[in-house]
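Tokenised fold entry reproduced for absentees:

. . .
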Amino acid sequence: MGTRTWGPAERVDAAPVGAYGPSIAIDTDDNAYIVWSQLAGPPDYFHIGFNRFVPGQGWSGAEILQTGADDPVIAMDPAGNMMMLFRKVGGGNTNIWASEFVAGQGWGGRQLIEDNDAGGAGGYRLGMDADGNAIAVWHQADGPEELNSTRYTVWANRFVAGQGWGNPERIFPGEMNNEAYIKLEVAPSGDAYAVWIEYYVSNPVYMWNRYIPGQGWGTAEIFEAPGFGGGSGFPDIAAGPAGDAMFLWRKNQDPSAELWSNRFVPGQGWGTAELVATLAQGEFQSRQIAVSPAGDAVAVFRIYAGGWPYALANHYIPGQGWGMAGIIETDDMAAADAPTVGIDAAGGAVAVWEMSDGSSTYVRSSRFTPGHGWGAPEVIRSSGPKNVIAARVVVSPSGSAIAAWSETGEEVNEQVWAVVLQ
């Protein structure tokens, strides 16, 4: 990873009005893929755009994948096959559709994966396993979403490579007062973990469920991992190589704060909760965790302890645990926000985050090399007065990466930009 360099940041959409919400993937040959939503005129109003980066050639050019659709999410298997979820409005309700990309062939048609027309579906998440099977999880409304009486349930569907999508099934028997914020991770083995928030009046309850290959979904339960309790925030998830998963959560206790993790192993259950980082005064904010095929993990997170918020990271080694958390950006005159991370097959990691000094926003990155630690932060997009929105990164097994975001300004429509590490 140390010999790779970031290329130039480039606009990858060609939308005349506005483009936003990129979702990205990168394959084992370091080809990078990106989809996004873009505004359109009537009667469709929204389209889904697509672009592809080929090493040695660059970006192939923006094209329209779907009309009258938006909010695409993509996931990829090791062979370079992809699945995309997106939404379309029909009959007054929002429905979830899927489209398959076959490596060497391209995109196929679209298929409706849920058939509940009582209310809209949304909040969908997607993952793929090593055999090209996919799992989708979403929330479903039982009536018009603008009504206070509307309740929400959590559903899932599974795509089997060579066969197609199955029937949607409800994976949580309860009903929620609000839309569910869902996180989903699918392991290479096909095991899957879904976590979501259920609200009782104003107090959140965190729920989770597991999918076991050959058995299906279990019974949804309150998330009660050892170490998780009062004051804990929504856990992030990263799936491990053997169907296991690492969970990461915060405990902001005013004035102190802690960041914790725990690992779930099929057949064994929960391990012992481990402390990732502490603050004597301040709070942990956004955070993300990634796990390598060897079981190493990297966590990145934002802290606020007065003054400018910082981006920090820590590294987990199986059998040793977490190391010492450290700052990965050194700018004392700007605020770090929304750090995200990806990890390669050798345990090297790439972190990307947004920076703002109040007058301009830009994107920075740092790379982690096992045995050496984090390198100096680099500016990978200096966007001047524009606002950077939702920067994210994915890393290939060999250590290449794609980072993408949307950006806008006072006189510039929202645009989708990307930069490739190779």
In short: The chain has two domains: 1-65+283-422, 69-223. The chain is about 0% helix and 60% strand.
